[in-house]
Amino acid sequence: MKAIRVHAYGGPEAMVYEDVPSPEPGPGQIRVRQTAIGVNFIDIYFRSGAYKAPSLPFILGKEGAGVVDALGEGVTDFRVGERVAYAGATGTYAEEVVVDSKGVVHVPDSISDETAAAMMLKGLTAQYLLRRTYRVQPGDTILFHAAAGGVGLIATQWAKHLGATVIGTVGSQEKAELAREHGCDHVILYRDEDFAARVKEITGGKGVPVVYDGVGKATFPASLDCLSPFGIFASFGSSSGAIEAFDIGILAAKGSLYATRPTLFTHIATRESLDANAAELFEVVASGAVKIPIHARAKLADAAQVHRDLAGRQTTGTTVMTP
What we know:
9 helices; EC 1.6.5.5; alpha/beta; oxidoreductase; 16 strands; globular; 323 residues; 26% strand; mRNA 3'-UTR AU-rich region binding; QOR-like; NADPH2:quinone reductase
């Protein structure tokens, strides 16, 4: 089969499109013939070596959807021919992938394979942020950085559906229009404006109870100045670079704040939590309350260019690759 492998950590040029043996499922695993592959910023972290793979070379990718074509010993929850999707797999930049069955969900008829691959990782991230990290309530005003990104466009729609007033930051006028179309009541161009001052202006000086930040270095520590007392700074990514170590005393000085660095994989570590979170995601998408924006499609063979566009923050919404 064809796959994208990384033999040495590096830039997009480190991604090699090559033939590799088709994997065989072991006990508790299933093999999936993939029809759609999700692309996420975490893939860049692994390709560059910011996150380490267990060994080199390795196949990139965490997210995808397709059809079960082989079962490992002991698998009883899935059958050959069923449509499935996953957000915590290893090696999805390939025509076929072997996945632990405990990390796989059935895809309902109301959701296409392409939509499932586009939304599993980003949609489940939005789910835990809005429903677990800080449970958004009607009447809340929230701040979401990178509101036109893959997670942002899902989360802002969902937050609006929950009854929140949504403030979003973006990096360009084009992205500002997109953010408004997907639920943002107020959009701030964070490169051109003092976003903390604008948030205080919008909220009448009160600040917001939560800041969801997938940007990192470029928006910290100013994000803390957006929070009301006892507010939560939820850092779930670092597209502009990692936040450097800081004096925890700053949280006291700025209003007894909370700071957390959650990750999706903790939230879907059990069969029960994965099924419950995915069911909630599928429900809001199937109802039409949240639409999954797929703004780019590419062939697996062109994955290096996809990474260049993503790293350059030239993309909006979601990119899906096909084998």
